[in-house]
Amino acid sequence: MAGHSHWAGIKHKKGKADKQRSKIFSKLSKEITVAAKLGDKDPAMNARLRSAIQTARSANMPKDNIERAIDKSSVNTGTNFENLRYEGFGPENVAVIVETLTDNKNRTASNIRTIFQKAGGSLGTQGSASHNFNQMGVIKINKDEISDEEILELAIESGADECVSKDEFHEIQCSVNEIYNVKKNLEKKINNFISTEIEWISLNSVQVSKEQEEMFDPLNNATGKDLLSTLEGKYGAKSAATFLNDSGIPGTKFKDAFSRGYFGGTQNFVVFDESLIDTTRRDQAVKIVGDEPLAGAPGNPNIPGIGRVRIGPNPEIEQAAIKATTLAGVPYRPVARYTQIDPNIANMAAREYGIMKHSPDDPIVASAYEKMIEEMMPQYDAMLEAGIKPYFIRPDLGDPYSNSPYEALIDIYQNKRLGVFPTFDESLNNQVANFGSDSSFDASGNPLLRDSGRLLGGLPATYNDIFRAVHDYYGHGKSGVGFRAMGEENAYQSHAGMFSPEARRAVASETRGQNSFLNFGPHGAANRSASVDDTIFADQKTGLMPR
Predict the structure, then answer these.
(1) H or E segment at 308?
(2) pLDDT at 473 over 90
């Protein structure tokens, strides 16, 4: 769903490469500018600038961009960046060095401290961790360029301190001041380099067997929760558990689904030795959330990292719904059973939404949307009074409900929290985001883009942000329904019963219309089985479909 669902908050593949490249170039340009400002503008006389330029070239940054970044160092922009280094210790007392480039050291210090704390680590003093590292120039070369024997000889001739040949690349280390000269010598025989950077090299390492190295290799970029599942995927559950148990690891723990970088949270445990499990309690494998599911609802969803969960309606949300509709002067129409989608009606709705015009200036359309806004605000207030603490999800920091959107319902039921993807995405320079897969769609005039005058998680919220929150709370949460085709239809039924007939027409466009187009429109067949990244979402048009 483009406008309100948690699926909508995840960035789509379209345009990802360009955005990522732009981010990289922006970061590299900043480093070049700062390096030139702090030292000589001649790379031959400025080691830091040489390294920055070499890194930029390795990333295929155009020459013009590099030159503009150097020229900017002479311009007084009013923004002064500082290079700061923080040292501390992560989980299991792992030494960590964080290097930052910032225009606000107070804000950065606070952010870094918070990150350490949320990860279970601690921020240390200058020198507390750096003695475990050497700062070195590191040049990486693809193994297809040169053999192990040749690179070793060439590295010695080029003045390098160390040469290590790994599985996919050669890594050459040298002093920071010599990185420019070493690379210049290497270029006599090598044309392509993976990267040229200044890195902190650990002084201490742990020797492991070939078997251990192969077993743990998939975990290089994995989070704690991925440990067992990653190994299972490559070696099978039994082999993975046996290996870990034989290695002296009878189990592991990791932050639960609601703790990922946002809250203190609790811990989940995976045990590899079955003798440690109380088999008398295995009948509790299916967790129960809410009341009995609606008649006709699908079975218990299997949520990765959580297991089978029986999710049903929430009586607390029902009471909040009654209070909200009473305040708004709207008759409340509760739902009694789970509705199966009629493909013929869904196809018709998809067709009508496809041809519907974006008409925010149409008086009838505008009136329906204003009525929807008027009636949903008491819903938001009642939600807050029920103790729900909504917050904005930062897309650039990850989705706390990435395993399954059902995690949002569990978050509501058990923790009284609800994450909402922001309409204006800070990671995209506060541009309107998540309004469909067509980046050319112009959403201007949409009344939901206006400031609501309310806060969401302590931050200003648009009416669209408010609608996303109340729809997930009263639509999905009240009835305990999912986020795919049938779940969204039932969420519409649940939430629409809290609006007047006029407002319901706008709600239908924002929910049923978008959902029908997504699942039964021209891309419907592919969308119903596609991953989120591959899903083609409907544009969030402001209009009304036929009654």
Answers:
(1) strand 307-311
(2) yes
